[in-house]
Design a protein that fits this description.
Blueprint: H1 3-10, H2 21-28, H3 32-40, E1 47-49, E2 52-54, H4 57-66
Antiparallel strand pairs: 1-2
Helix pairs in contact: 2-3
Amino acid sequence: MTAAHSDRETGSSNERALVDIDGAAHRLGVPVRHVRRLVAERRIPYIKWGSRLHFDPVELDDWIEAHRVPSIEAP
């Protein structure tokens, strides 16, 4: 059993609170409609429980970093 798995079982304070679609839109700085499109196109990591969408803030941050375009330094 991994440490992360055991933390979830014991309810450790290291647990990450998932955010809803409004929270994800706020974190990304886009409208909810855009987040729904990203989900429909499966371009963003999400968790679906029934009809509700949830997002892991750490996965959102990783997704943002993966899509970062580095700047080009001027000569």
